[in-house]
Amino acid sequence: MPLEARGIGFRYESGQWVLRGVDIKLEPGEIVGLTGPSGLGKTTLARILAGYERPLEGNVELDGNPLPATGYNPVQLVFQHPEKAVNPRWRMCDILTEGWEPNDDLLTSLSIEKGWFSRWPNELSGGELQRFCLARALGPQTRYLIADEITAMLDAITQAQIWHVVLDLVHKRNLGVLVISHDGPLLKRLCNRVTELKSEMG
Amino acid sequence: MSNQTAVSQNTSTTIPEASTGGTMMPLLDVRDLSVSFVQYTGGLQMRFLTVITSLSLTVRPGEILAVVGSSGSGKSLLAHAILGILPNNARISGTMLYVNEDLTPERQMSLRGREIALVPQSVNFLDPLMRVGFQVRSAAHGSEAAKAQRRVFDRYHLADQVKGLFPFQLSGGMARRVLVATATISDARLVIADEPTPGLHPAVVKETLNHLRELADEDRAVMLITHDIEAALTIADRIAVFYAGTTVEIALVADFTDNGEALRHPYSKALWRALAKNEFVATPGAQPSPDALPPGCLFQPNCKIATPECASVRPKERELRGGMVRCIHAA
Questions:
Q1: What is the ipTM score, two decimals?
Q2: From the CA of A162, how many Å to the nearest CA of chain B?
Q3: Domain B23-115+188-325 architecture
Q4: Cβ(B239)–Cβ(B66) under 8 Å?
Q5: Does pLDDT of B93 surpass 90?
Q6: CA separation for the pair B233, A54 (Å, rounded)
Q7: What are the extents of the domains in chain B?
Q8: Is B71 within 8 Å of A115 when comparing Cβ atoms?
Q9: Residue-wise pLDDT tens digits, B270-296
Q10: Cα Rg of chain A, angstroms
């Protein structure tokens, strides 16, 4: 029941190819690291895997089928900048329950406080917002999590908190995770294997 | 109606200098700084958000002081307070001395961009519609601006044609170099770098940090604001650990070693142990909210060694083993 991308090619408009012939496969319960220099298309690949972009070449399959076009997407993407991933005109409680209603256990394990629910996104720090974004993405139907530098701007304690919650779900629910990061020690700590994205100039 | 007239002239209160005991006069000396925001929550009802609480630190020429702490702990606001660019609803108390003289709003205005420079967090701080060379030159003040711009471009290995480019045409690393070039073109004596390295490739991180080290080695004072302890440790001289808007500890780089026994404050220890390369342990709980700060020690609600006394009295800063700590249990 893997998430598999085969022969992915992508470019924005008629510019240079950002990705060409990229294959990547994630099994349930597996944590895979993805690293490589800036500007090589790691984020673009993340967007393609989660269905935000359609690849120009190749295809993405979940259990051998294309990603569902409607309803809850079992492949959830969490972005590097949480402040850009939330609607600034929604209160935090609405943002949190956009896809499902997270239970108290998850909120406690992410140290999300009830007092934050009535706030606006600009009243919380990046670390606090990112906890909401992660909770929002971890609904029961989520099978794969694509984590695009989700802790790059957080302090070590918050990083450890967030990753322990993800690791817990990997064990409990057999969640598959793609960790995109520049942080060598973090990848070593988290991942079963690490893939390096290399320059693919077509 | 300047909000910053509240900066007190009171320098008679003696606060033990939180430093490593160097004899060189600090370039920047912040004492007992507090910053709060006034918010109207409805009608005439006000609430105060205290974002920085009695913070003291010094930066001396030739050294890098790293300010590390979690996001939302008020690190960037400290930089904004020093530069005098806080929003109008900010209330400031305490003293800030620059070369032993009070940093009044007038002085801040004349010093910023000239003697005190900021390397901002994000490339978005560049004007998207202005050619890079022109932006760098505009920070130079004077007739020799074009020459100065060529000199800094040379220094940071930016080709001459880069000056004609717009910010969106630069790579991440190039944009970083442009930001450093802008900050250094005017021979600033104090450089404040606010999170200059998040999410960058290790090679670019290293390059940016090396630029800061070079600036310190030229006898400038550098304040590096970051959440990334590992990066800070590679170049800084001293580390100020920030939590909920105050410095809980000022430590030497050498104190960050092994299991962190040499560190003084329980939060610094927890931060060090949480690193992926160390134990990767998470301390539960979040930072206290600025509108509901605990009356005692700010870390007490999440602290494992807290005693009843911690909950009632806010610990004063004291010198300990060549650094500073704000914890009654530290030894």
A1: 0.84
A2: 9
A3: 3-Layer(aba) Sandwich (3.40)
A4: yes
A5: yes
A6: 42
A7: 23-115+188-325
A8: no
A9: 999 999 999 999 888 888 887 788 888
A10: 17
